[in-house]
Amino acid sequence: MAIIKEFSALRFTNKAGDIGALCCPPYDIISEAEKQALLKKNEYNLIKLELPEQTDAGYKGAGDTFKAWQQNGILATDDVPSLYIYEEKFSVKGVDYAFKGFVCYVKLAEFSEGIVLPHEETLSKAKTDRFNLINATGCSFSQIYSLYSDKNGDTARILGELSSGAPDQTFTDDAGVTHSLWIVPKCDKTAEICRQFENRKLYIADGHHRYETALNHRRYMHENGIKNENSEYVMMFLVDMENDGLVVFPTHRIVKGIDAFSGADLIKKAEKYFDITDLSTEKIESFLDAEYKNGKKAYVYYDGEKCCGLTLRDITVMDKLIAEKSEALRRLDVTVLHSLVLEETLGIDKENMANQKNLTYTRSLAEAMDSAKGTADCCFILNPTRIEEIAAVAAAGEKMPQKSTYFYPKLTTGMVMNKIKEIK
Questions:
Q1: Which tens digit of pLDDT belongs to each residue from 202-227?
Q2: Which residues, in sequence order, are bridge partners of residue 362?
Q3: Distant-in-sequence, close-in-space partners of 126: CB < 8 Å, separation ≥ 6
Q4: Read out DSSP for 283-313?
Q5: In the predicted structure, residue 400 carries a pLDDT above the cut 80
Q6: Where would I find the H helices in 180-274?
Q7: Confidence band for 168, pLDDT divided at 50, 70 and 90
Q8: Which three-class secondary structure state does DSSP give residue 356?
Q9: Residue 87: strand pairing partners
């Protein structure tokens, strides 16, 4: 199914400075203030290339800077095609986690081929931005994050052998996440890993916009008669979905601007489907944790004063409401909340959600609650989507509502880059 191979990554040289001051978080979660703070650490921080102003001049400036950094020996391409084993170690609520995968080339495949599978909807503005950046620089600076199934641990065992020694690069970022990289030149063991993917599918965890941009760029190259082998592939980080170190955070919903909003009316209507449990705000997380462990579809409603838990009584109501959708999609927590509460009770339709007219999103429980105390009407606190649910929805050929998953921590940007083509 999936075709993967070693590749020669573009990487920072020692001349650029310490790798920890050169890498940055993904472009789509960085504010302008954070960007400037990163550049104060090191003028060569990759954010300078990864997040230019979204103007012709901004993209051209990124392209010119990229060429200058190569000419000045700040960036250089590895001589030997390699697999790049990458590990993140981190803590969540006092518990230590770690996961290890690898960065490689993956041959591009349309979603309709059923080889690389998405699970979330995308926005055209983000894809236009990434396309313009690739055209201006000829490079993709960040890898797509994808999952695969390795129930027997075949790939994990080889990765463990290949990364048993000290990493080639390692640093701990400001969030306390330790990033380590092992560079493994093409050999029999890397070839064996590549062969193991011949019967595997890949499930995009993070980077849907970048994958669709890679497809669009390949199409652009074909349409313009430009032959380039690199544009047939995309740089991707692959990790097995059975890995115990994978952590998914929930994304909470903030409701605002509903005409004549009444929390009391909302709760009364919700009683049609949900058991209601009065809560103190201190009990929010323990309530959700308990319901999650019991396999229940549960949420916490908060409007700055009223706080209560909503537990779905009968999941089969979803089978009647959206019978045309797959069982995997019908049983998602976010689908239940969107269908039974946001759409049916509050009248927030899918277009409204996509445009974030009456609905915004946050990963922060504190931000959601502060918004409900302030200008928002209310918020809904959710449990995280399970890894197996993500794979099931993707395998069914469907996509989750936007902001359904947040894999934590994000992959760092800057340890490996994919130079696709030369720009004159």
A1: 999 999 989 999 999 999 999 999 99
A2: 252
A3: 28, 209
A4: GHHHHHHHHHHTT--EEEEESSS-EEEEEES
A5: yes
A6: 188-196, 208-223, 263-270
A7: very high
A8: coil
A9: 100, 180
